[in-house]
Prior knowledge:
By secondary structure, the chain is mostly helical. The chain has two domains: about 20-65 and about 220-270, no CATH class; about 70-210, no CATH class. The protein contains 13 helices and no strands. It is elongated, with a radius of gyration of 24 Å. The chain binds a DNA duplex through helix 3 and helix 6. Pfam families: Myb_DNA-binding (PF00249).
Amino acid sequence: MGRKPCCEKIGLKRGPWTIEEDHKLMNFILNNGIQCWRLVPKLAGLMRCGKSCRLRWINYLRPDLKRGALSEVEEDQIIQLHSRLGNRWSKIAAHFPGRTDNEIKNHWNTRIKKRLKIMGLDPVTHKPIEQREKCNSEAEQLSRFHSQREQQKDLKIEPLDTPGLEDAPLPQMEGEDSFQPGSDETINVLHGYEMLWEDLDMGMMINPENNPTNSYSSSFSLEDSFSRSTGESSSLQEDSGQCWINNVNYSIPQWDLFHNVDDIFLLKNNQ
DNA sequence: AACACCCGCAACCGCACTATA
DNA sequence: GTATAGTGCGGTTGCGGGTGT
């Protein structure tokens, strides 16, 4: 059948949002609520499609968003939920107030997936990967590890698809025999693998977060605005937020005034 | 200092689902 | 029952910053 695009695309702006656009969208929604996303850009004076506005609001401008890196506990919960729900990110995100499906999806794809693979777990099924596949994966890891080392030493290395590796026993965890895909025991297995790998001095590979690199969006951040209104400041904000403050000067709503945002929007929508 | 590569994240795209005429 | 509009969701892409050489 083929649906029409949600809006006329000619002449519409794409790409990163500017502070002015954020400001317009925020002001409009706070004053009028959300009734029809298609009308939002027109009424708010934005050259964007409704879909883009919706996404920007949900993923970035919503006042109840929780910013900052996901904690290890949250990460474990995501793994648990993923084992039950699969890639239903919106359902998973529903368990984390203030987190967006996009954020969780990104985190899964960039970190958790790798972490599980390195631990020998299939990120899709949460089952231990087939022995051969696992060996290959281990071989890959070892290959990278060795090649980095050997590159430093400028030495020739042996090929890694040696029979010895294939015959190597898989790490056996307690209760692994009774492992059920999708069960909560996934977490136990994860912790078991972590301990094992840490014993092998591979902790840095499993937990790259041990050496985190602070990243932040150059776009407008509500966390920054909150910090400014409350005087709170994290180390991250001192770097990014302060820089932002120094360079941008415009008024934004005081988010701590909106204790129950849902009520506000429901009220608007019911009018 | 310059370049290449890697990684994380915001944003886009297209399909699916639901409501409605 | 069918077509269409609106919205939600998941997969993918591309940009920008960080890191290594």
